[in-house]
Amino acid sequence: MAQERGGMQRLRIACVLSDIYLPMDDTQYIGHAWKCLHEAVFLQGYEVLTVALRVYDEIGLRAQGGVPDDLDGYAFVAPQPSCPDLLRIVRRGLPSVLVGSKLSVPGSDCVDVDNRRVGQLAAEQFLKAGHERVAFVTTAPLQISSMERHAGLKAGYLAAGKAAESVRYYGLNEFAPLESTEELEDDLAAEFAGLEHLGWHANPGVMDAFLAKLRQDGVTAILAFNDQDARMLTDHLIRSGRRVPAEVSVIGVDNVGRYVLGAPRLTSIGQNVPQICRVAVRLLLARMQNPSADPQVVLVQPSLHERGSVVPPLRSAA
């Protein structure tokens, strides 16, 4: 627990990651949150310990670990609902905060971006450009953040008087039906049921079938789960002969330079990770002082970064 050094109390805080891929890439959400959490803790004058449950390199899984229970506080980055270490820490009543998550965990505070607002910001851009048929595309269809971003995109179109069919929901990569939707808000449970899953994008024929589906459904604009997905989709569209953004506009999420600075330059919605991490550390320190306080869920507002990947669809540009 807290140690005395030079007459001062030194709190030790864990930054817990389920998976670390080495070398660490801080242009991805997990790596960026890891870096920002360390900065936020250091600025408070405390110690931070990185805890990884699994460590990977280019060869594969190299090490596995667990979460020690002798620290003063725990910041879990994008934890999974079934994470046994999270449940054990919470059961023991140790102070914890969930970063990039809205999991309902008794005794833990949560800080995340407002994912519904992410979808709404994309809807505003697409509607302003005149897109009538749009899609949310995700390689993480089981994540609640995917469902919320799609719900926000759809809500923006419904608020503009457009039909529900104006917004499609496509999933790529891992997928399995949820065992239970009880933890989902009512509208998210309904939206998840409408997900169209196309398969693992690297499997032969999957991307060809997906691109044909986009054309068949008349989709002229895509909100991708993140910037990496947006760049992957843009590259596949271009290789298939589609012009981006002239024929298909694309928006990503995260606003990281590695992916937004390609051709075309990618319009992206930033999650404001530094602010998320500063709020998380503030909540964690407050919980250390008052462990019995009611848990808080704080949503940080996203920010739009316009570049060159959203233009009017061809039919309305003439």
Task: Describe the structure in brief.
The protein is α/β, with parallel strands linked by helices and 318 residues long. Helices cover 35% and strands 25% of the residues.
Features:
globular; 318 residues; alpha/beta; Rossmann fold; 2 domains; 7-stranded mixed beta sheet
Q: How would you describe this structure to a colleague?
A:
The chain has 318 residues and is an alpha/beta fold. The protein folds into 2 domains: 3-113 and 272-301, Response regulator (Rossmann fold); 115-270 and 304-317, 3-Layer(aba) Sandwich (Rossmann fold), CATH 3.40.50.2300. Helix content is 35%, strand content 25%. The protein contains 10 helices and 16 strands. The protein has helices at residues 29-43, 84-91, 115-129, 144-159, 186-193, 206-216, 227-239, 257-260, 273-289, 314-317; strands spanning 3-5, 8-10, 12-21, 47-56, 61-64, 73-77, 96-99, 109-113, 134-138, 167-172, 196-199, 221-224, 249-253, 267-270, 297-300, 303-305. The strands form 3 sheets. Strands 5-4-3-6-7-8-15 form a 7-stranded mixed sheet, sandwiched between helices. The chain has a 7-stranded mixed sheet with strand order 11-10-9-12-13-14-16, with helices on both faces. Strands 1-2 form a two-stranded antiparallel ribbon. Helix 3 packs across helix 4 (144-159). The model has no long low-confidence stretch (mean pLDDT 88).
